[in-house]
């Protein structure tokens, strides 16, 4: 039922959502948000409000959310169904049902769309400021000339950043503005995860580390995006878990490690990731080889290589070869912004 309701509601609200929002939307992905940050970071937007909403999916106000839904949906049967899902309750581990007075359905198909509807209040507030005050390049230049700041919101679900061309005080004042916009929706910023940072110091967003650095051998500074240390550590923990039990068949170890490495590299291939890929390839190879030596303690290193290494080097078994991240081609992901196609926009804007 939630899936059927999403089919009805998503086209309606997609025609209203702004281009600065990327999470849980068709034809949009995390790399689009990173590309927009890279674009504005390369254009003197040096201060960053890196924000995170605390327990977003659990604390959204039902009344405020329903008010936003009613602005676009007039069918009372649909409204009653949305409200019923919001009030459906939670089944605990002990089998007891707890009422839900706030938040969206836990793990529900409809939850991401409802969260985007609620958080579109933030998009609208900052989007209207952008169009009214900073929409044209001439306006932005004039504002900087008289000492006023420019800013741009980029949001992916409940994680968002505000790029600021101005001062640290300008970024701090925008933090207070964000608090004011989120409060009516029953939301608040996470104090531990929200910070104002300079682009030269760098920050983590959607698994990437984004930082402005001097290009080696030159005096020019560029914005670089590469896998964050936390992302690398999480991947290494997964590879360690796969290669922990010597009793697991080699084919199963290689298949699981390959799927983990391939998915991770595909996500981070649009960035400065070549050196990290090479490092992770060597790390994974060492983990698998050490796992083999524990599994076959009676075999010499020469015999292990003869049995399990293709070309006496790459670990292989029954046609499955250990994935080599170093061979993944990296490329720049180009900013698309408002040019991202929306499947239903032309049908529902009338």
UniProtKB/TrEMBL annotation:
<dbReference type="InterPro" id="IPR000477">
    <property type="entry name" value="RT_dom"/>
</dbReference>
<dbReference type="InterPro" id="IPR051083">
    <property type="entry name" value="GrpII_Intron_Splice-Mob/Def"/>
</dbReference>
<dbReference type="Pfam" id="PF08388">
    <property type="entry name" value="GIIM"/>
</dbReference>
<dbReference type="InterPro" id="IPR013597">
    <property type="entry name" value="Mat_intron_G2"/>
</dbReference>
<dbReference type="InterPro" id="IPR043502">
    <property type="entry name" value="DNA/RNA_pol_sf"/>
</dbReference>
<protein>
    <recommendedName>
        <fullName>Reverse transcriptase domain-containing protein</fullName>
    </recommendedName>
</protein>
<feature type="domain" description="Reverse transcriptase">
    <location>
        <begin position="1"/>
        <end position="210"/>
    </location>
</feature>
<dbReference type="Pfam" id="PF00078">
    <property type="entry name" value="RVT_1"/>
</dbReference>
